[in-house]
Design brief:
The complex is a heterodimer of chains A (252) and B (68). Chain A has eight helices and eight strands. Classes of the chains: A alpha/beta (252), B mainly beta (68).
């Protein structure tokens, strides 16, 4: 549930980097995701028109979440967001303001500022951010409808590097927390969801698998398992062994 | 002929060409393209047919592509 809108799945998937559109479509189906992210780019006028994702992806079936990927400042990010909205599907934007090209880490100051600008224009802003509590609080204050801390850098597949930070963010914010980026395999998705966050967003973890369709299904199950385990409440960790079987009744 | 910049490259079209005419000439479905003209997004697709291009117009034609 984000900004009063209830979604079927806690898994949001990207549509980039697939070897073919056919594999992408089948992977998205296997993931069970309802929300899919797309990027805004110039139409390549020298090539055929089928680079456009909507030639392959049915916008009646999926909730399109446009991103501002590749934008490096507030002016660019807000421009991309407005172009995305003008496509006419919804007012939602996955806001990315990237500060560093080597790590693709986000610019906290620019992201907060762009969130404020876009929220004031009526956008539902889902803000990609570092796993920093204070930035997350500022984003919520600026009007983000969801805050999306990273598990690890975009495309790295390193898994959840700082569960403590993500748990703290989830604990302290009221808006939904969707962990975005860095999930590499199903166990990463599971561990991430076990922190109690509301959802996970991933692209490369599925698209770059040897078999993206199977990995998409694994991610779906990983997200479900992690959520269920979180709700179930794990046993306390102990530094000593405790027998599971009766200690009495041994043969003499 | 009038000279335009379209997606960063110079392009000439016949005088009187409309936004709809430009998109049609490029084989683009206007429902799947967002047009920014001189920094302003053209929000009303049903007005594309009435909007004549002018010499020096800078156009950006964008669409959704795969992304994460």
């Amino acid at each position: 549930m984000i900004a009063g809108h209830e979604f079927r799945s806690r898994l949001i998937v990207g549509t980039g980097k697939y070897a073919s559109n056919d594999v992408m479509i089948r992977a998205i189906e296997a993931s069970g995701a309802e929300v899919v992210t797309v990027a805004v780019r110039r139409v390549d006028l020298d090539r055929s028109n089928d680079a456009g994702i909507l030639h392959h992806l049915d916008p009646a079936r999926y909730f399109l979440l446009a991103n501002t990927a590749g934008c490096t400042n507030v002016t660019e990010a807000t421009r991309y967001a407005r172009l995305a909205r003008a496509a006419g599907f919804n007012e939602w934007i996955k806001l990315e303001v990237i500060a560093d090209q080597e790590t693709l880490l986000p610019d906290p100051v620019g992201t907060v500022e762009a969130t404020r600008v876009l929220a004031a224009e009526g956008f539902q802003v889902m803000a990609y951010t570092n796993d920093d509590l204070i930035t997350a609080l500022r984003l919520e204050d600026a009007g983000a409808v969801a805050v999306m801390p990273l598990a690890a850098p975009i495309g790295s597949g390193l898994g959840l590097l700082n569960p403590y930070s993500v748990r703290t963010i989830k604990h302290r914010l009221s808006v939904p927390i969707i962990v975005d980026a860095g999930v590499g395999t199903a166990s990463d998705a599971c561990v991430t969801m076990e922190q109690g966050v509301d959802g996970v967003l991933m692209n490369t973890g599925i698209a770059a698998a040897k078999d993206p369709v199977s990995m998409a299904e694994a991610m779906r199950l990983g997200v479900q398992a992690g959520r269920l385990a979180y709700l179930a409440g794990r046993m306390p960790r102990r530094e000593v062994a405790v027998p599971s079987s009766p200690t009495s009744g041994h043969l003499t | 002929m009038i000279a335009l910049m379209v997606n960063g490259a110079p392009r000439t079209v016949a005088g009187g060409t409309t936004v709809a005419g430009l998109l049609g000439g490029l084989g683009l479905d206007p429902r799947l393209v967002v047009v920014e003209r001189n920094g302003t997004i053209l929000r009303q697709r049903d007005e594309f047919g009435a909007l004549a291009l002018e010499s020096g117009d800078v156009l950006e034609l964008v669409h959704f592509v795969g992304g994460g």
